[in-house]
Amino acid sequence: MKNKKILPMPVLILIAAILGTAVLGEGGYIAAKKIEKYKDKIILQENILKYALDALSAQQKELEKIKEDLNIAQKGLDKKKSAAVESARKAQEESAQNKISALEEKISQTKTYSLSSIISDWRPLIANVECQFRYSDTGRLYQKSSGSGIAIKFENTPSAILTNKHVLTDSNGYGADSCSAKLLDSDETLSSSDIRSSAKEYDLGYIYINNPSDYFKNLTSNFPALCSQKPSLGDEIVVLGYPSIGSKNGLTATEGIVSGFDGNHFITSAKVEQGNSGGAAILLKDNCLLGIPTFVTLGKVESLARILDIWTAVEK
């Protein structure tokens, strides 16, 4: 058996070196390629990240722009809303004011109509009264008095002109010998010597008409309507009569309110003067006879006059 030939050591070392270099060279190439690919991947990721950041920044700016536009739009909307609210408020105020004005005008017209119709209803009943005073022994006339009265007919009593006691008596308390009464819508002059004054302290008297005409009977059969309830403070009234201050030839009407109470009297702000005392005080809300104006000083105007409750006259 032949022995194998073994290469010398130097040759083996050289071959090993060549093989090692080849292996190392291939490994380095592969490593370099891997590194290059990794770098490309890193660069790509960086580019993607940069793009994403740029897109996010752009979106952020767009969002801020949208928010700014929204703020501007909101301010404009708030301004328009405020203007609309103010316009609506002014429109409501104007509408309310128009309604108030219309209501006031309606009330004024209603009041004017009511007052006018009430005066028209009651004026035929208001009498202009004149009384004569004579000495009992000689019959000589020594005094005349005048005032207002109202035609009335209480149940179970004669027809009468209701007036004030001070119209029917002189300063010494002596009664008139005769009185005459003239109604506005009649040519008739009512005369009577049947004159009676209240025995109480009330300023109240009666001129009885014992033979009344048909006109007088019809007049008093329909009117007057007496107030069935006490008035309230502030209720409106009208006083009808023939005052010495005012119309000399016709009826006058003075308005006022019930401003207080004093026993059987109502205190009123309506002007009551010597001439129109004894006339009629009409409660406007119920169109009824409240009472007889009284408690005045001859020839002078009281700022707060009194009205005697009509039921005092009924009860005497």
UniProtKB/TrEMBL annotation:
Positions in coiled-coil regions: 49-83
Domain of life of the source: Bacteria
SUPFAM superfamilies reported for this sequence: Trypsin-like serine proteases
UniProt cross-references to InterPro entries, sorted A to Z: Peptidase_S1_PA, Peptidase_S1_PA_chymotrypsin
The keyword Membrane appears for this protein: no
Keywords: Coiled coil
Name the UniProt record assigns to this protein: Serine protease
